[in-house]
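Table S5 (text form). Sequence records supplied for joint modeling of the two-component complex.
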Amino acid sequence: MRLATLNDSTPDGRLIVVSPDGAHHAYAPVATLQQALEKWPARHDEMAAIRDFPEALDESRLRAPLPRAWQWLDGSTYPSHGELMAKAYGREATWSPIPLMYQRLSDRFIDPRGDVPLPDEAHGIDFEGEFGVLTQKVPMGIDADAAAGRIALLVQINDWSLRHLAAREMKTGFGWIHAKPASSMAPFAITPDELGSNWKDGRVTLALEVEWNGRPFGHPNGAAMGFSFPELIAHAATTRELPAGTVIGSGTVSNPDFREVGSTCIAERRGIEMVDEGAARTDYMKFGDRVRMSARTADGRRPFGTIDQRVVASSK
Amino acid sequence: MRLATLNDSTPDGRLIVVSPDGAHHAYAPVATLQQALEKWPARHDEMAAIRDFPEALDESRLRAPLPRAWQWLDGSTYPSHGELMAKAYGREATWSPIPLMYQRLSDRFIDPRGDVPLPDEAHGIDFEGEFGVLTQKVPMGIDADAAAGRIALLVQINDWSLRHLAAREMKTGFGWIHAKPASSMAPFAITPDELGSNWKDGRVTLALEVEWNGRPFGHPNGAAMGFSFPELIAHAATTRELPAGTVIGSGTVSNPDFREVGSTCIAERRGIEMVDEGAARTDYMKFGDRVRMSARTADGRRPFGTIDQRVVASSK
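The corresponding structure-token record, covering 632 residues in total, follows.
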């Protein structure tokens, strides 16, 4: 089952169920995805039983499937990315048995085709292609086995970053505020069964294809996560309960053969250049630049739909 | 004007306006504080015009005035606290012209008299007494002068911390997840005019009285913030818009004469012991311990009411 949210000018939009062929939709029996996640799996079962999709789907009206969330916790789980960045910046690369995770602003996810307003090109504007999960309510202290059963839906995320602001904030130990503006979400939130065997070991094992200004930039596979989504949920819930609709992210998708398959963020390409050539030569994004991201199955389907966005100057 | 939220078994509770004598209330013309903040100052003006308070106020039914928020950003703005902790832990203490701030979980604020469920005494359970503001919607890139006009209400916060989990997370640079469970909020959110001359230079210039298990622990004054609340809002909004109802915190209140006035968190007392005596001898909280916090005016009023809470073991 694939769910999406129509723009109806309300903060949370109108939840719809998308037909199997992707061309039509039905209105969900509940107004918003947040409300559906609060009564999962009952709402799932009602929506999965829908067989009549009377409305034509207009993708240009789709918002982020969850336009805002009560929590958004992003991991950094791809070892090849962490090791490369440590090498590029002269930090010690140590594998940790504890996931890296940070608290992310959750009051908005930018629409998949929405412009991304940012204040300054000099901040080092970068995209980050990721996969994520939306959870049901999760009790404090859950273990990873039980956490697998709390995953309601899978999503695809563009986790915007302002790289030149990141190092200073990271050094404080307090994490990022300026370096992490609002994220974006691809239009379809999907149940894991939509992926068949490409939902495996709590990971999305699809290539995430990224284009920057129309040119292929990378297509690494999501399978290489050093921790599974259930492990990330258990980590997140160690000392807190998670509300329904919590978003948990994988961090930027990366593969060990990044020189061949490319990257899902500019920072990683710059890291490769620093290691291989002694200096980064690829610049970050400029206003007007576009990024396009979508995960693709072996038979050519794009289950999460496509993020296709332009960076623009914010006006004060 | 003082606002509070009655427990009516809904997630956001029922907003009420408290009478000047604190003994009665009227139902607000809008159901929740979040809704009021989204239409501020119009809702403020309607509520401030109320003269009839027909209901007896039952403080035991009061929740956090904002039971959940779309963003909660906490500062660490008291120089005496930062300098002491750096000295105690052998870090370099450097004054920064940029505020320290981190993204905090915002999906719940624990009720002022609610039990605080935590998984393990060994985590180093600590309270942190703070002041905070609730904002109207704030545009990206606002300056501090304009940010002053976006402050709707003042609040008092207990920012729970698990100290023994904090150092590891801080070293990652990603900020805290395990070390920062849900915070609590005192029952009354108040307009700045309620404080008269004790709202000065964008700071709450009241002593915050803290008792731990019935014994006085500290009563430092909120005035000593190294940055004002408008400066913190401007910092927070540098690369993001802030939604209505954003909570911005001062960090644990601290004064340079902490040896005389005491502290609002156990970590600071332990830091004093480490510096003065070579080792911390005050333990963190145990299950069953209580903490009580309220700011007091010179004439004995407690404008935010009182946080009075017990720490309990969470059940899986």
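Note: Chain B has a mean pLDDT of 97.
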